[in-house]
Each structure stands twice: as structure tokens, then as C-alpha cells.
Design a protein that fits this description.
The protein is an alpha+beta fold and about 350 residues long. About 25% of the residues lie in helices and about 30% in strands. It folds into two domains: about 10-175 and about 345-359, D-amino Acid Aminotransferase, Chain A, domain 1 (2-Layer Sandwich), CATH 3.30.470.10; about 180-330, D-amino Acid Aminotransferase, subunit A, domain 2 (D-amino Acid Aminotransferase, Chain A, domain 2, Alpha-Beta Barrel). It contains seven helices and 18 strands. The strands form two sheets. Strands 1, 2, 3, 4, 5, 6, 7, 8 and 18 form a nine-stranded mixed beta sheet that branches. A hairpin with a 5-residue loop joins strand 5 (about 80-85) and strand 6 (about 90-95). The N and C termini lie close together (about 10 Å). It binds 2-OXO-4-methylpentanoic acid. 2-OXO-4-methylpentanoic acid (COI) binds near residues 79 and 305. 2-OXO-4-methylpentanoic acid binds near residues 79, 205, 239, 306 and 307.
């Protein structure tokens, strides 16, 4: 059964007077620069979500200089992608997992949770309206960004009483145009035990910008974040989860309070386990990684995330030394995983796991 068709909610619609779609070149898409014609909005006030609507993508009204989110970053977001198949149906990949994670992040940030029917029906109607914005070709998709932000006009540091839920979308190409160079970060931290690293919230990303910028100045696209206590164990790569194939072991950090519970991450691990790979969710010491690079047991490293999908890593910098990683073979695990995921979410392969929503 297609759960998306069962919801009955009142969602008002106001259509754009002139679609911007004819101006868009699907062959030349950057990430997150172009936005589709419409957005879904809902307001939270007096203890409930209300005023569900779809309207043209435009400036958000009534955002004052005292907006609590602008000052204290009380917000959560998600990222997922829509595809189309040859029958021109809309396909969403594991969208229910994004809903669960949105609400998990919301709890951590004292934000009211979104009922599933609002999330699903809002997204379904929005995508139905803007289905022409879904690029049909491989390597591109429609990125969907659900967001909840605090709406109170108040400078007191406390949870807001009012919020807005927004779903915006935009066609995207690859997040990284080339294999990624990363530097093991041994000074700054992205997250700490008991902190908010597992939440998809604005502050986590804002805090990563300065260290990432320093890394960029040294020629690295992203940082390989390590634990905040000892800078000894690898946690994430930039805005992605990160995995290492060492011998036959596919190693990635266990999800916990410092690691984002990635949906691409869990999909990749599930597929790899089914393929007989020795998947290990455990601490990986930087020293173990360096040793594998020096003794020849290292096979490949890649980041996983919705935006980046599977991003091969081509260089790791550590304590002033750069380790160039072996070129990734066509039949490498990362490439096989990428092909499998692409085939499932583009409807080319049967979805035996209930991972896709289609309409
Ligand atoms: C995603 O992979 O969707 C993310 O949320 C990363 C992003 C901040 C670009």
C-alpha cells in the first residue's frame, strides 16, 4: 500500500503566477542554489501545528530582527531526495527515516515534533505540484529540505512558543565534483559526548565552518573529525558519515551522541552486510588507519550522506603528511554500493526492503 495516499489533511494552495522552470538548465546544476516554484508551510502556535499551505517560493513573512532562531539557532532540518522513474512516478528514498530523524533532532532542540501525516502529505502534495522540477537524468535529483525553526520574537534564552515548518526543494547535481581530500582534525571538534552532534541542527554546521575553512586554505575539501576528548578516533568527514574498507572490514563509527545517524550510512551498512562484508560499527583509531595505509591493508575510504551520496576520498592528511589513497576501481565496494542505491531509488531495481515511497 502506498501510505502517502491515505492521509486526509486540509492543505490550502496558492500557485505561482509564472513558473521559473523554463529558466533552469538541468545539465548545469550546483548544489542548493536553485529552488523549485513552491514551498510547503505549517505554523505551530497555541500548542498545535496549523495553517498548512503550499505557496510560491518567496520571502518568509513576519521574520523580525528579534527572531529567536536568528539569535540562538533553535532549528532542525533534514535532507532527502526525489527521483523519477521511466513511468514518470515520483520516488522518495527512505523518507520515513528522515521523518523519524527530524523528530529526534526536534526533541534534542526542544522543538515540537511534526506528525507523520503532515510531513508526508505536505511533501506528497508539494512534489506532485513541482514534479516537473525533478531532473530525470542520472547524477541529478530533486533535493528536499524540511526545516523547522523558532518563530518567537524574543531575546530570552528559552524554547520558543511558536515555530514554522517549511519544506523547500530544488534540483541538484553532485555535491562534490571530484574525489575528496580530507585532513584529520586534531584541534577543533564537531561534537562532544552529550552534545548535539547527532541532531541535524544549524549550530552544528555553523561551528564547523571555521575549522573547515582553515582546512580548505591548506587544500583539503573537508575535515576528518575526531573525538573531542582525545582526537584519537575518527567520527565523521565534513558533513558526511565516513567509512573505511581495511582488509575485508568495513569500519565506521557507531552512531551515538556525536555521530549523525545517517540514512545513507545505515542503507550502505545493510547492503554490505547482505553482501558478506565484515561490517564493524566501532571506534577506528587514527593510528589504526595510518597503520593500514602503511602496511597495505587499506582498501578504500568514502563518505556517505544524502547530499553527497557516496563520496570517494582520495587523500588523507595527518600531522603534515599527505597519504594519497589508491585509485578506486570500477568494481570497488563503494562503486557497487552506489550503483545498487541508484538502481533502487531510480526504480530500476525492485525495492525488496520497503525503502521507497512512490506516487
Ligand atoms: C545532506 O547530506 O543532506 C546534508 O544534510 C548535508 C548538507 C548539510 C549539505
Amino acid at each position: 500500500m502506498n501510505e502517502l495516499e491515505t492521509a486526509t489533511l486540509e492543505i490550502s494552495t496558492r500557485l505561482t503566477e509564472k513558473s521559473r522552470l523554463p529558466e533552469i538548465d538541468f545539465q548545469n546544476l550546483n548544489f542548493g542554489r536553485v529552488f523549485s516554484d513552491h514551498v510547503f508551510l505549517a505554523d505551530y502556535q497555541n500548542g498545535r501545528w496549523q495553517n498548512l499551505r503550499i505557496q510560491p517560493y518567496e520571502t518568509l513573512p513576519r521574520l523580525t530582527p528579534a527572531n529567536a532562531c536568528l539569535h540562538y539557532g533553535q532549528s532542525v532540518f533534514e535532507g532527502l531526495k526525489a527521483y523519477t522513474n521511466t513511468e514518470k512516478e515520483v520516488i522518495l528514498f527512505r523518507a520515513d527515516e528522515n521523518w523519524k530523524r527530524l523528530n529526534k533532532s526536534a526533541v534534542r532542540m526542544c522543538i515540537p515534533q511534526i506528525p507523520k501525516e503532515i510531513y508526508k502529505e505536505g511533501m506528497r502534495m508539494l512534489l506532485d505540484m513541482d514534479r516537473g522540477w525533478i531532473p530525470p537524468m542520472d547524477g541529478a535529483s530533486l533535493y528536499i529540505r524540511p526545516l523547522i525553526y523558532a518563530k518567537d520574537n524574543s531575546l530570552g534564552v528559552r524554547p520558543s512558543d511558536t515555530y514554522q515548518f517549511v519544506i523547500l526543494t530544488g534540483p541538484v547535481g553532485a555535491y562534490y565534483g571530484e574525489p575528496v581530500k580530507v585532513k584529520v582534525e586534531t584541534h577543533f571538534s564537531r561534537a562532544c559526548e552529550g552534545g548535539m552532534g547527532a541532531a541535524k541542527s544549524a549550530g552544528n554546521y555553523a561551528g564547523s565552518l571555521y575549522p573547515a575553512q582553515l582546512g580548505l586554505e591548506e587544500g583539503y575539501h573537508q575535515l576528518l573529525w575526531t573525538d573531542s576528548k582525545e582526537h584519537k578516533y575518527i567520527e565523521e568527514a565534513g558533513t558526511m558519515n565516513v567509512m573505511f574498507l581495511i582488509g575485508n572490514q568495513l569500519i565506521t563509527a557507531e552512531s551515538g551522541s556525536t555521530i549523525l545517524d545517517g540514512i545513507t550510512r545505515k542503507s550502505v551498512l545493510e547492503l554490505a552486510r547482505e553482501w558478506g562484508v565484515d561490517v564493524q560499527e566501532r571506534k577506528l583509531a587514527v593510528s589504526e588507519l595510518i597503520e593500514s595505509l602503511e602496511n597495505g591493508t587499506f582498501v578504500e575510504a568514502f563518505g556517505t550522506g544524502t547530499a553527497a551520496t557516496i563520496a570517494p576520498i582520495c587523500q588523507i592528511g595527518y600531522e603534515g603528511k599527505n597519504y594519497d589513497l589508491p585509485t578506486v576501481a570500477k568494481d570497488a565496494l563503494s562503486n557497487r554500493l552506489l550503483t545498487e542505491l541508484e538502481d533502487i531509488r531510480r526504480g530500476r531495481k525492485a525495492d525488496t526492503k520497503g525503502w521507497i515511497w512512490k506516487f
